[in-house]
Amino acid sequence: MTMKKDNKDLSAIRNDMTQLDYEIADLFERRMQYAAQLAMAKKETGTPIYDKNREDEKIADITRNRSNPFIVKGLEEVFIQMMSISRKYQYHLVHQRDRYIENYFTEVESLVMFPDTRVVYPGVPGSFSEMACEKFFGKEVDHYGVNTFKEVAFALNNGDADYGVIPIENSSAGDVTGVYDILLENDVCMVGETFVKVAHHLLGCPGSSLDDIEVVFSHPQGLMQCAPFLEKKGYEMISVENTAIAAEKVAREGFFNHAAIASRRAAENYHLDILKANINFEDNNVTRFIILSKKRQYTSNAGKISICFSLLHESGTLYNILSHFMYNDLNLSHIESVPLPDKQWEYRFYVDITGNLHDPAVKNALQGVRSEVAYFKILGNY
Q: In the chain, what are the domains?
């Protein structure tokens, strides 16, 4: 009998909660109607949709004089999310013209190319960066190498080159260190990308053997991608600026106990022997290269947008920002977080989404994100 009474009480409680849920849903719909009216009023007066101070004051007022800490925390979460949804609805209704994109970016049918167009890449002939350059632009384009990623940006800033090519991500070793900093510290824009399958080989001077090798040179990514082989052999690993630079160094110095991790093309260019082929630990090893330009342009058929923004490390902030993409039916394909130096509990996020800067949904989402973060930059549409 007790079991039946408890079941009846449980059912009654659930029925009461369900009825209350319907009332809450009706109240939420009424609140969104007021949000729509508010959006039109803000549009007429030019008032920003997002007012953080006002929202903070409202949450403080609603939670004031409530003694249960769990209820206070719950109300804070509910109203943070509800006001976030309200803002997204207002952005959707207002459709304010996004002059940020118009002021900083130009839409073109294709990347501008002239007979004297120059392309710069990090490294020397035979590097994977040169391969990426030729894959994207063709072998006939005027291209040349520099020592570092930063020098690629300097060449673009100084007008010495029209486009630059640098690696940004590897399928087995992750993001390439320092590339995102270059994108933020220099006035350059991502305008394209290409992918190169990377096969690393151990290269030595003609006549040398695996047993002779003691020291191996390569780019940090190359060393990382071949770490299991190198560690098993017990070789000393030394980082240099580029895989092909490592090959050039070994060929120039001629020490039988030195080797380089580089491409087959580098072996041919610098007349080195392949002591061991395909030593990277992952067979499907692909590096993604980005194409940079001083000109902030994007093509009409570009399908990926890279952005950067920074946030305080507070509950719900990242979700509220990323939900702008969800509410505009945009796919998020990549996200990377980096702690900000000298700013405790603040993070910078690098995000890739699908879409084109001329799409209304993209403009709406980016406008919402930009209004609600501490720092925002579109890195490119390509």
A: 15-94 (1.20.59.10), 113-294 (3.40.190.10), 302-382 (3.30.70.260)
